[in-house]
Design a protein that fits this description.
The complex is a heterodimer.
Chain A: E1 29-31, H1 34-42, E2 49-52, H2 76-81, E3 86-89, H3 96-104, E4 108-111, H4 117-130, H5 134-154, E5 161-168, E6 173-174, H6 180-187, E7 190-192, H7 206-212, E8 216-219, H8 225-233, H9 239-242, E9 246-248, H10 261-272
Parallel strand pairs in A: 1-2, 1-3, 3-4, 5-7, 5-8, 8-9
Antiparallel strand pairs in A: 5-6
Helix pairs in contact in A: 4-5, 5-10
Chain B: H1 8-31, H2 39-44, H3 49-82, H4 95-108, H5 117-137, H6 145-169, H7 172-183, H8 191-210, H9 212-219, H10 222-227, H11 232-254, H12 260-272, H13 276-298, H14 309-330
Helix pairs in contact in B: 1-3, 1-13, 3-8, 3-11, 3-12, 3-13, 4-5, 4-6, 4-7, 4-11, 5-6, 5-11, 8-11, 12-13, 13-14
The chains are: A alpha/beta, B mainly alpha.
Chain lengths: 279, 334
């Protein structure tokens, strides 16, 4: 949330500090979230990464970058040992203390959010700005917006379908309103049947699924496809079950607020309006 | 207030009353939920949403709640008598801990949350825990309640530590599933699973019932009981095994739902007296009623969102447990 500029790195117990970067453009960057890593590469600054979180797996070039701990639990020591000029983080359940510790050690930290599409554009611009690449940031935002727009246009004019998107089988956790995933669902021509549940990630009672009668069920939960189908198999009045439209969706693009969001949107659109993509 | 000894008449009337209460509860709970369901439509059209909701989602869940609640409460009553401690609960002796560890390991190893692998693994874990605690507490051919309690509590602590370790190492989404299983859930569509749990519940209750009178005599003192012909060692072992099987079966299908096995038997003992011949079946029926209502609350109070049932039993059971504890402290019994 804060974005403080500090002139020098101070490493406790480490000999000579690195010389200050000229003009304040960071040359050594640590990314603590997979979405941020993808944004940095998309901005063309991938070679500046000196540390990434363990879950960062795209693009392939990131394999050579050393790991500094997990998205949920980054290692403060390992991060500081890479002598970064800039650490970029997304708030995760568990990394708050680590990020604070890195800030206290005198390293510049940029925190961006990933909850909504608005967060996505803001984070791309913020990261680009911090890297000294504002023009590239604007281009990236424009490109990703255009790709999303293309998905929206592909399904434009079709009546929206009732969709249930789940991220967990047991408990049955659905995507609620107020999430990036919900926005993508709407953009892909769907209406979220769990949108009024009042929670961002509601745990639904099974009878709700029957009552709301979704036409498509998008299964983004971990666990096999078979498990998802079995879970709903007995609910024979649900249109999605009757027409066999329980669609599994690989979740890495869906849950990363990064440049591949249009791929997730396209996958959703294909699941919700398959006729728009036939032929 | 209560008569000094149990008559056949009292046994029958209390049981019938409780059975009637249970049936009424099952019917009422099946008709309550965040979605309005018309019983007439459900019975008329097998293919209506009402029928699917009632018979595929609500009824199996309500029945499972009854079976699990009954099993936990009956086990609680037996264990409280066996250990001579009215504050004992079925999860105390580590059987549920063993089941939880095995179930969680199955989840983390990649088993689907909706497959029967997890309950089967959990039941195997419960059996393992029973063996460890029974053998661990056995010394010189005797298994005293004191020894069982000590070994059980230690094993429980170990199981809890193992659960925390697994939770720490598992991925974030796996950990959510693990947590929900530990907090307990009655959400099921499987009549097969329900039948298996019911079978274990009734067999366990019958097994306990056979030893009910012996358990009464044991409560009055080991020597006195032995003189009256009770085979102390055998009775203790049988009661421990039967209640552990009840707990293991319940936890394997629904996770660790707390407080049912503690407060239901205790409450019924205050109302009906300590005679196990009445208290055991009464606890089963009372536990069934309690858990069905707790689960009905859990799946209704927040509208479309459901609370873990363990939260509701804890919120009602927690304050009650404190009240019991204070009562015991005041009587100088703790």
């Amino acid at each position: 949330m804060t974005c403080r500029l500090l002139a020098l790195l101070v490493l406790a117990g480490c000999g000579a500090a690195a010389p200050p970067p000229s003009g304040g453009v960071p040359a050594r960057i640590v990314s603590l979230a997979p979405s941020i890593t993808e944004v940095v590469y998309a901005l063309g600054a991938g070679e500046r990464l000196v540390g990434v979180c363990a879950q960062c797996d795209y693009p392939e070039a990131v394999a050579r970058v050393p790991r500094v701990g997990g998205y949920l639990a980054p290692s403060v020591e390992v991060t500081l040992a890479t002598r970064p000029d800039l650490v970029i983080a997304v708030p995760s359940p568990g990394n708050r203390e680590a990020v604070r510790a890195i800030e206290r050690a005198g390293v510049r930290v940029l925190v961006v959010h990933d909850r909504t599409l608005a967060d996505l554009w803001a984070s791309m611009r913020a990261v680009a700005g911090a890297l000294g690449l504002p023009a590239a940031g604007e281009r990236l935002v424009a490109d990703v917006s255009a790709s999303l727009g293309a998905v929206r246009d592909r399904v434009a004019g079709r009546p929206p379908r009732r969709v249930l998107m789940i991220v967990g089988h047991s408990p049955l956790v659905a995507v609620g309103r107020g999430t990036l995933q919900d926005e993508l669902l709407t953009m892909a021509g769907g209406v979220n049947v769990a949108g009024d549940a009042g929670q961002v990630w509601p745990t639904l009672t099974l009878e709700l699924v029957v009552a709301r009668a979704p036409e498509v069920i998008v299964d983004a939960a971990m666990g096999s496809e078979e498990a998802g189908r079995q879970l709903f198999a007995g609910l024979t009045t649900v249109p999605a079950v009757r027409s066999g439209r329980v669609v599994p969706l690989a979740s890495d693009t869906l849950f990363r607020a990064g440049p591949r969001v249009p791929e997730a949107a396209a996958a959703l659109a294909r699941a919700i309006h398959p006729e728009a993509f036939a032929g | 207030m209560r008569p000094p000894h149990l008559t056949a008449r009292r046994l029958v009337t209390t049981s019938v009353a409780l059975v009637a209460l249970l049936v009424a509860t099952l019917v009422a709970a099946s008709l309550v939920g965040p979605v309005h369901v018309s019983l007439a439509r459900a019975l008329a059209t097998a293919d209506s949403t009402d029928a699917v909701i009632l018979f595929r989602t609500r009824l199996p869940r309500v029945l499972l709640g009854a079976v699990v609640g009954g099993s936990l409460a009956a086990a609680g009553a037996a264990l409280q008598a066996l250990l001579g401690n009215p504050l004992a609960c079925p999860h105390l002796l580590g059987i549920s801990g063993g089941a939880a560890v095995a179930g969680v390991l199955a989840l983390v190893a990649g088993a689907d949350t909706v497959s029967p692998v997890v309950p089967l693994a959990a039941f195997a874990g419960a059996l393992g825990a029973i063996a460890i605690v029974a053998l661990g507490a056995r010394a010189g051919g005797r298994t005293t309640p004191h020894a069982v309690l000590l070994v059980g509590v230690v094993f429980n602590a170990l199981a809890a530590a193992a659960l925390m370790l697994v939770n720490a190492l598992a991925s974030y989404t796996q950990a959510q599933g693990v947590l929900f299983w530990i907090m307990g859930s009655l959400s099921t569509q499987s009549y097969g699973l329900l039948a298996a749990a019911a079978l274990y519940g009734l067999v366990g209750l019958a097994w306990l019932g056979v030893h009910a009178q012996d358990l009464n005599l044991l409560a009055a003192g080991e020597e006195g009981a032995a003189q009256l012909g009770v085979e102390v060692e055998r009775t203790r072992r049988a009661v421990f095994l039967a209640s552990s099987l009840l707990v293991g079966a319940a936890v394997s299908v629904s996770g660790m739902i707390g407080f049912v096995g503690l407060i239901v038997p205790h409450l019924l003992r205050l109302l009906l007296g300590p005679d196990q011949r009445l208290l055991l079946p009464a606890s089963f029926l009372g536990g069934a009623v309690f858990l069905v209502w707790a689960d009905t609350l859990a799946r209704t109070v927040l509208g479309p969102v459901e609370l873990p049932v363990g939260v509701v039993t804890a919120l009602t059971g927690g304050p009650f447990f404190l009240f019991l504890l204070r009562r015991h402290l005041r009587r100088g019994l703790a």
